[in-house]
Design a protein that fits this description.
heterodimer; A: 275 residues; alpha/beta; six-stranded mixed β-sheet; four-stranded antiparallel β-sheet; 10 helices; disordered C terminus; B: 328 residues; Rossmann fold; 22% strand; transport (chain B); AAA+_ATPase (chain B); ATP binding (chain B); cell membrane (chain B); nucleotide-binding (chain B)
Chain lengths: 275, 328
Amino acid sequence: MNGTPLLDIRALNKTFGGSRGSKALDDVYLSVPEGGTFGLVGESGSGKSTLVKCIVRRERPDSGAVTFDGRDVHALRGGDLRRFRRDVQLVAQDPYASLNPRMTVEQIVGEGLVVHRLARTRADRRARVAQTLIEVGLDPDAMGRLPATFSGGQRQRIAIARALILRPRLLVCDEPVSALDVSVQAQVINLLTSLHEDLGVTILFIAHDLAIVQQLCSRVAVLRSGVVVEEGPTRQVFSTPRHRYTRELLEAVPIPDPVAARAGRTIPGGVLTLP
Amino acid sequence: MTTEIVQRTALLQISGLTIDTEPGDTSVRLVDGVDLTVAAGERVALVGESGSGKSVTARALMRLDGSLTIGGSIRLGDTEILAQTERRLSTIRGSRIGMVFQDPMGALDPLQSIGAQVSEPLRQRGIRKKDALRRAAEVLSELGVARAHERLGAYPHEFSGGMRQRVVLAMALIGEPEILIADEPTTALDVRVQQQVLNLLDEVTRERGLGLLLITHDLGVVAGLADRVAVMYSGRIVEDRPVRALFADPLHPYTAGLLAAVPRLDVHLPRMTTIPGAPPSPALRPPGCPFHPRCPVAMERCASETPPTMATADGGRRACHLDQGSGN
C-alpha cells in the first residue's frame, strides 16, 4: 500500500554546540513513500528545521543516514548529486524573502532550467516557464514582472513554479502557507493537492498547523525536541493519538465555532473539556 | 438578549475613523470610516487580513504612528484620545488602556529586569519602588508565573515565549486599565502556548470585567473568546455582530468566505473552500464595495456604489447590497 520509500531517514542524530550542546535530532527514523503526502508537525525547537536542512544537504547529520531513492544523500557526488538537486526541491516559508527582488518571474522560474541545462533555447525556456506558470495558476503574461508586484499568495505560487519546473520527485514544503492570509492559504493548499494528484510528486510538508496537515497529508509524524513521538496515517493519528504530546497539540488547536469552543469541544477522537 | 450589548455604556467609542498615510500626492487612505464600540466588560474582536487596516486602527487608538493622519473620533469614556497632548496620552496608555502586542520580545527591554518593567507604570505614578515591585509580583503570580517574587530580577531572555507574553500582560494590567487592546497576541506563538494565552485573556477580562479589543486575522482564536466580532476588509468594517450569530449565519459574503476558508480539524473535504484573488492593497482599493471583485454574489451596483452600513435584527450591522438576511 505504501510503496517503496522515496525518502528514508534512519537513526539520524544532530547536536549543535559540541558534545555537550543541545540535541536537535535524536535518533530520528522516517519513511516517506513515493507518491505520498507526508506531514511533519512540530512546535518551535522541535528540530523540524534541522531535519529539513539535513534532507536538502544544508546541514550534515552527526550520524545516521538520509537516503533518497536508495542512495545516501550525504555521500552523493558528481552526476548523482546534480540529479538529486533536480529531484528534490524546497519551497520555503517566506515568499517575500525567498525570491530575488531584482529578477523577473521568467528569470526566477527559469533559473533551474539554466542551472541544470534543461532548455536548449531561450524560446524553449520561455515556453516551459509559461507552461509552469499556468500549472500553478498564474498568468504567463506576468513573466516580465518583478516579485514586488505580486501578492504574498502569488509569490508563493512563483516559488512553487520555480520548484516544479524541474519536475522534482520530492517537494519539501517548509511552512509554505504560514505567512499567507487565510483566504489565500486555502488556495495554495488546494494547488499543492492538485499538483500531487496530477503530477504524482511526493510532498513532504512541514507545518505547525495541524488542520492544514490533515487537509493535505495522508501520513504524519509528530516531532518533539528532536524525537519522533508518533507517526502514522493522518486520520488515525489525529483521531486516536497515542502519544500524550500529540493529544495536547490537537486539544490546543482553536476551533472556529463559538459553541464548540465554549461548551467543551469535539475533536476527532472524543470530547475534551477546556479547563 | 443581544440588544443589551449595544445599550451598555460605551467604554471605547470609535466614530468615523479615517487614517491616511503622509499627506501629498501619494497619500493613501488606510482606514476609510470605521465606527466601533467596546462596552465596559465587553470583549470585541476586530478581524481582518493584510491591508484591512485592523492593525493600523489598533495603533491609532494609542496614537503610536506619528506619521499618519488620523481623522474622526476615538473616545475613551469622556476623553477624546485624538485631542490629548503626548504627555497626557502616555498617562492614559499606562493607566486606562493596557496594550499587548504580537511580539512579546519586541515589547520588552532585554536589558531591564522583569520586575523593573512590570512595575514601571506604577513607578510613573509615583508609587514607591518597594510597593510597585510587590504589586508586580502579585500580578505576575495571578497570571500564573510561579515564584514570581524570586523572578523579578530575571531578564526577558530567561523566560519562555508563553512566560514573556504573561509578563507583557502583567505590564498591561498593573495599571488597572479599563480596556485591554491586544494586537495579534498569539500569532507568533506555538499552538499550546497560544491556548494558554487565550485562556489567560479570557480569565483576566472575565474576572476583572475588563473591556477587550482583540485584533487578529484568526477566526479560530476569536470563536472562544469574543462576545462580538467586527470583520474588516480594505479599510472598512463589513460586518459587526454577536459572535454566535456571525459564525452561525454570516451576513456578508466576505465573512462567509473567510469562515469557510479556515482550516478545521473537524471538517474533511477533498478541497478547501477558497475566496478567489487576494485582499487589495489600500492604494488599489476597488471602487464601490471593495470586496466586489472577489465576491461570488456581486451585482452590477457593487462595482460603483459603496454599500451603506445597515443594522441587523440581532443588534449588529453589515455593509452589503444584498437583501438583509434574517439577522437573528
